[in-house]
């Protein structure tokens, strides 16, 4: 049995990438004028959610301050928002003690009358 060598990676042209992304997002009916950079905003925001600072996020793409703050990140103070939500601001710590509480059944039934069905 002859074993084939692994295929060498080939560079994907910008137009092929844009066309493939366009087909993938239009197939389920998603409309977007962004094709090649469609995931940049969400990936930058996800990095911010796990406490990466702006300099770390910027190093992952060729973004200047105007681009990263205007197009990819919100201008909301993430540390302040984490603190107001009850999370510590110093680490990737997202456990909330209040989320482990089980509300009384009587309260659940008032909020969700069909809960027993």
UniProtKB/TrEMBL annotation:
**Where are the residues of the annotated region Disordered?**
1-34
What range(s) does the Ndc10 domain occupy?
A: 16-116
Q: Which InterPro entries match?
A: Ndc10_dom2_sf, NDC10_II
A Pfam entry, by short name: NDC10_II
A molecular function annotated in GO for this UniProt entry is: DNA binding
Cleavable signal peptide: none
Name of protein:
Ndc10 domain-containing protein
Give the species this sequence originates from: Absidia glauca (Pin mould)
Annotated gene = ABSGL_15268.1 scaffold 16333
């Amino acid at each position: 049995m002859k074993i084939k060598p692994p295929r060498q990676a080939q560079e994907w042209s910008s137009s092929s990438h844009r066309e493939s992304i366009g087909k993938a997002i239009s197939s389920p009916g998603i409309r977007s004028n962004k094709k090649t950079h469609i995931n940049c905003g969400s990936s930058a925001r996800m990095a911010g959610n796990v406490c990466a600072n702006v300099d770390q996020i910027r190093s992952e793409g060729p973004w200047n301050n105007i681009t990263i703050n205007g197009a990819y990140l919100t201008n909301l103070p993430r540390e302040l928002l984490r603190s107001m939500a009850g999370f510590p601001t110093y680490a990737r710590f997202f456990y909330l003690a209040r989320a482990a509480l089980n509300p009384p059944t009587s309260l659940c039934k008032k909020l969700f009358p069909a809960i027993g069905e």
